[in-house]
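Checklist before submission:
- one chain only
- standard amino acids only
- sequence pasted in full

Submission:
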Amino acid sequence: MKALLLLCWFVLALGAAQAQPTVGKDYLVLPKPHPVSSGDQIEVAEFFSYPCRYCQAQDVAISAWLKTQPADVRVVRKHVVWGKPMEGYARVFATLSAAGLTERLHGAAFQAVQRDKVHLGNEAEFEKWLRRQPGVDAAKTMAVYRSFAVKAQVEAAAKFTKDYRISSTPMLVVDGKYVIAAAQPMQTRKVLDALLSKVRAQRNGQA
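Returned file contents:
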């Protein structure tokens, strides 16, 4: 009986150990942590691009996951920029953010690019698409699109893509240092939850 109990304990302990994410396999640690602007909250940076079909599913999953999290977690979306072809899409996201249209049109932008094959990275196509969106002032939004502030955000996006060493999407960065390649939403959430617990323990002096 004792042998059976010991065996059960060993199996459970082994399973718990295997459940813990492994550095180098489930996530990476940036050699130089990046400062975050989330204050007491733990920042989860979601790196994505509208042309990335996996990013759309991940974005939906992360949005649903966030609703189950305590108030100490903050998700920040960041559109990557790999050269000129991606700048137009980053400008779209920066425009929606600056115009206060992210909640209304972010998902629709994914649908337009992924399902409807609209080239939102092209200024003229983006403007046509905007004019089809109910309740949106296209002229006012395009003024934001062409603003210096949005141009600066696109330049910043190119810089953080390089600084964070983002080579593929979707990608998550927890607390400016833990990097998760987020291709599978279910596995991503498990690793994400474990890393958030790790960060909380570090902040409480327990790790």
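Reviewer check: Confidence is low (pLDDT under 50) at residues 1-18.
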